[in-house]
Amino acid sequence: MAGLDKRVATYHEALEGLTNEMTILAGGFGLCGIPENLIAEVRHRGVTGLTVVSNNCGVDGFGLGVLLESRQIRKVVASYVGENALFEKQVLNGELEAILTPQGTLAEQLRAGGAGIPAFFTATGYGTPVAEGKEVREFNGRPYIMEQAIT
Questions:
Q1: Pairing state of beta strands 73-78 and 97-100?
Q2: Has residue 83 got a pLDDT over 90?
Q3: CB distance 109 to 123 below 8 Å
Q4: What's the first-to-final CA gap in the chain, in angstroms?
């Protein structure tokens, strides 16, 4: 089948075009299935000011935690960050911005972004700090908050 060949031979080649201030997505769930070698290549390149979207932010010294150690991450969008002491320290010191979002909402933000849908409404998070500052609409008598897609 003819088409674009997206295969690459090296981690270096996979990250060509990675620059400061970019948004990157990192797969995995907890410490399982994380792209350890790609994370190591990001660290090696020394790019800074990254926004990282992931299920979690690793732990101290492992997973995305290694990019926190090297101060390459500016902002994290995640659904869980509970086991990373350095993450907590950087957030409390104002060195790192954190956006915590429910797991299903995070998945839908990514799916919507990939499908070209700029925003969607969800009941998840209504009445909690997650909803603060977000548009609220009522559908069939139930309140929903608007979430923006991640692109």
A1: parallel
A2: no
A3: no
A4: 28
Question: What 3-state DSSP class applies to 121?
Answer: strand
Looking at the whole model, is its pTM more than 0.70? yes
Amino acid at 113: G
Q: Side chain identity at 65, as an amino acid letter?
A: G
Interatomic CA distance for residues 63 and 86, integer angstroms: 13
Q: What is the pLDDT of residues 93-116, one digit of tens each?
A: 999 999 999 999 999 999 999 999
Domain boundaries, the chain: 20-100
Q: CA 126, CA 19: separation in Å to the nearest integer?
A: 36
Rounded Cα gap, residues 100 and 136, in angstroms: 19
How is residue 64 written in tokens?
């995305």
Q: Confirm if 106 and 76 have CB atoms less than 8 A apart.
A: no
Q: Are 107 and 124 in contact (CB under 8 A)?
A: no
For residue range 51-75, list pLDDT tens digits in order: 999 998 888 889 999 999 999 999 9
